[in-house]
Amino acid sequence: MIGYIRVHDAAAKWDVSERHVQRLCIEGFIEGAVKFGTTWAIPENAPKPTRTSKLKPGRVPKQKTKQTQQSDESNQE
Predict the structure, then answer these.
(1) Which range, of 9-23, 32-46, 61-75, averages the lowest pLDDT?
(2) Which residues form the domain of 41?
(3) pLDDT at residue 10 in the model
(4) For residue 6, is it within any domain?
(5) What share of the chain is helix, strand, coil (3-state, %, to 5)?
(6) Distance between CA atoms of residues 75 and 17, nearest Å
């Protein structure tokens, strides 16, 4: 397809594994990525995504318990 590259090509371009590129596509981190059957088509001009968090989109971080907060405070002293 014109204007798109394969997972293999994106992995080589971004210096990451093919599996990592597949996970980024599945998790929605690559804008414009489209799946045709078992193959992902990634826009040629798509930038390498950077994760600002290890949480998946839509997930909320766990709240700290009182015990965890107390241990954090004692470590700061």
Answers:
(1) 61-75
(2) 1-45
(3) 95
(4) yes
(5) 35, 15, 50
(6) 38
Residue 22 lies in a domain: yes
Q: Is there a domain that residue 61 lies in? A: no
Q: Quick check: 44 and 3 in contact, CB under 8 A?
A: yes
The total domain count for the chain is 1
| Residue 4, SS3 per DSSP | strand
Full 3-state SS string of 29-60: CCCCCEEECCEEEEECCCCCCCCCCCCCCCCC
pLDDT digits (tens, 9 = 90+) for 57-72: 666 666 766 665 566 5
Q: Is residue 28 part of a domain?
A: yes
Q: What amino acid is encoded at 42 in this protein? A: I
